[in-house]
Design a protein that fits this description.
This protein is of the alpha+beta class. It contains eight helices and 14 strands. The protein has a single domain, classed as Deoxyribonuclease I, Chain A (4-Layer Sandwich), CATH 3.60.10. Helix content is about 25%, strand content about 25%. The strands form three sheets. The protein has a six-stranded mixed β-sheet with strand order 3-4-2-1-14-13. It is globular, with a radius of gyration of 17 Å. It starts with a strand and ends with a strand. The structure holds one DNA strand.
Length: about 270
Amino acid sequence: MILATWNINSVRLRLPLVEKFCLEHKPDVLCLQETKCRDAEFPSSDFRRLGYEHLAINGQKGYHGVCIASRLPIEKTVARPFCGMGDSRHVAVTLGAAAGFENPVTIHNFYVPAGGDEPDVAINPKFVHKLAFLDEMASWMKADGVADGLSAVVGDLNIAPLETDVWNHKALLKIVSHTPIEVEKLAAVAAAGPWTDAVRLRVDPAVKLFSWWSYRSADWSNADKGRRLDHIWTSRDLAKNVVGVEVVRAARGWERPSDHVPVLATFNFDV
DNA sequence: ATGGTGGGCCACCCA
């Protein structure tokens, strides 16, 4: 089974890129963030045409929005609100016997708040929201046993935890997405599972690896001022089934690209 | 230290 996550930055605008990606990489389950449309405006028939007949959509007008598109039947869908807000930042599906799984697999798709520009809770309410969101993720995961059995957390977590997850560790210590407080809170979320970083399980943590390059930097590939903001984590039991991961860097160079690229994990289930 | 580019959508919000 191939699982993919991609912050698409408008699913309607970038439908041709979704199609290109799905034809080239054949994910069984595709988790998207920043779909930026209401559920009724989601291009569901296009996804069905591409073979993704099973959709779990949690959208909203203009901002945020997440979706899980699956080739395999979905047994159960849950969308959890966070921080007492109406933001569409989470959706989860469970795949079971109808999808060919002896034991059910649950996949959580997150779009963690970006957190604004100033990493200072005294002046930036967006940063407060981001930290509170991470705290709520951790406490909920622990209390509800979210990482029990076979489960995964994927998405745009908007934090680059390792020194090698950014182009320049020292230069980014005071930049939102790589500050010590964010890295610490993300580690607490990972420990609350506990979750395994499936990508760093397969890619040497000493090697720089990015999934996002700003639109504002010209010549993104040569400058290579990227960050690894997009993640695939698995529960302890599911980690044993990871046989490969891939970050599709080339997608950043496609026509009218998202600023994020797809991240994939392959599992040794035949479905 | 600043400003650089995108998307949604119609005055600015967000990244």
